[in-house]
Amino acid sequence: MIPGAWGPFLLAIDAWHETGTADVPCAYCAESVPLTEWTWTDDYFSFAHLGFQVRNWPEPTLGIRARISELLGGHRTAYIRGQALASPLLTD
Questions:
Q1: Which domain holds residue 63?
Q2: Taking the mean position of all CA atoms in its chain, how far away is CA 89?
Q3: Residues 6 or more apart from 67 whose CB is under 8 A from it?
Q4: Residue 72 and residue 33: Cα distance in Å, rounded?
């Protein structure tokens, strides 16, 4: 990890939680990028305004996940899986 790189994300996460929007400057080029446009390995973070939680259902296929995104107007979605939890999240 780049020293000091996490600090701007912590501030942006707090701002996003309070306001629904936040930017983070790129450590490489200093360009300001909306928090929701950053990508994370395995969707480690997902900033969403809408989430679905389903229990006792089979694992959703890629086709089902694509259809959910289509029904939501093509918004980018993230799929988070946990213990008895599968949540497609609207992220932008």
A1: 41-92
A2: 7
A3: none
A4: 23
**CA–CA distances in Å: residue 10 to residues 2, 27, 29, 46:** 14, 14, 19, 14
Same domain, 84 and 55: yes
Q: What is the pLDDT of residue 83?
A: 46
| Single-letter amino acid code for the residue at 19 | T
Q: What is the pLDDT of residues 27-37, one digit of tens each?
A: 788 899 999 88
For residue range 55-89, list pLDDT tens digits in order: 788 888 889 888 888 898 877 777 777 644 344 44
For residue 24, give the nearest of 90, 92, 37 by alpha carbon: 37
Domain shared by 31 and 48, yes or no: no
DSSP 9-75: HHHHHHHHHHHS--EEE-TTT--EEEGGG---GGGSS---SEE--B-S-PPPPHHHHHHHHHHTTT-
Identify the three-state secondary structure at position 79: strand
